[in-house]
Amino acid sequence: MGLSGQALTDAGLTLMNWQMIGMLIGGILWGILGDRKGRVSVLFGSILLYSLANLANAFVTDLTTYAILRLVAGIGLAGELGAGITLVSETMTQKHRGYGTMVVVSFGVLGAVAANLVARNGDIFSGFLNRIFGSTFSNWQVAYIIGGILGLFLLALRAGAYESHMYKSLESEPTSKGNFFRLFSEKKRLMKYIYCIAIGVPIWYMIGILIALSKDICAEKGITNVNTGNAVMFFYIGTSFGDFMSGYLSQVFKSRKKIIVFYLIITIIAVPIYLYVQNISPELFYWICAFLGFAAGFWAVFVTIASEQFGTNIRSTVTTTVPNFVRGSLVLLTFMLTFFHKSLGMDLVTSCLLVGIFSIGVSAWAIRRMDETYHKELNYAEMM
């Protein structure tokens, strides 16, 4: 679209914010529907919406349309993870459900790796797409088209998914289901919900601030020829491994909380290394991105904790909204970064560090106050 320099950075942050706003809206919408209409229906609806939005995104020609479609895609993207984790938590045994969420999350984040590979090798696919649509596509357009097609393919694979037995046993009960606002009606329940959200804030600080601005951060540190797509790819390779290990370790040590604390300690080590190592090759920087990604790899345990904290009648609402409120926290983090960097005139690296201290501090505060949920019985309704 002809953007470069600071205009390109600002546009990227704006588009990310629109997508995060969409995920906030979608998180509430799909979460409520998951508790009222079933987990499987949310899986189908959310996948269809984000797949169509991604296909449409390949044909944008202006920033406004781009932003609208990222909003719509965000709404769609908000539903799948929460519904999937809820289904896994409710259909697997107490002993093994941590392994289930581990597999879902660790393989899911590899989509970002695939996106970078497709975008970098768009010529391989463009000839095939040219025969279908009758026009030539840039690599970024190819990435959106392939992403949309893969989403529709995923939808076909999900056709055999069956509803949670816990949810089905609750259908005939007169219990309030999916009442989002009841989460705020009691202080203890509200604080538990806030703790669930706060735990995951450092993850999206690392993704949405540090990695999204990797090229600008590197420019300030004297590291040249850094490709943001490669930074994203290496970060998510590390995240995939980190998610696999965090889920596995939470089962081995029979504790979700201890593993979160362990990963926060790794984050405290990884962030300064990422921000302050100077004059290194791009290749070495990408490996630091992978280490940062590993530190962010407690997403699997984080969403498992959220799913295990609440009863069946509100579980989908919580499990779907919590990750999306975490993603939505990027709007606040971006505002803080802009305030430090532009309003107070601090350099970008220092501004990022201050936002990181806030993110990690909030997470540490929350995990200290949460109950352990490993091996918790989930077949119950929340008294609302």
List keywords for this structure.
single chain, 384 residues, mainly alpha, 17 helices, 0% strand, globular
Outline of the structure:
By secondary structure, the protein is mostly helical. The chain has 17 helices and no strands.
Describe the structure.
- The protein has 384 residues and is mostly helical.
- It has helices at residues 5-36, 39-57, 63-91, 97-108, 110-120, 122-133, 139-157, 165-170, 187-199, 201-211, 214-221, 228-252, 257-276, 282-295, 299-309, 312-343, 348-369.
- Helix 15 (299-309) packs across helix 16 (312-343).
- It is globular.
- The chain starts with a helix and ends in a 15-residue tail after the last helix.
- The model has no long low-confidence stretch (mean pLDDT 91).
Helix percent band: over 70%
Count of the domains: 1
Largest sheet: none
Terminal CA distance reads 50 Å
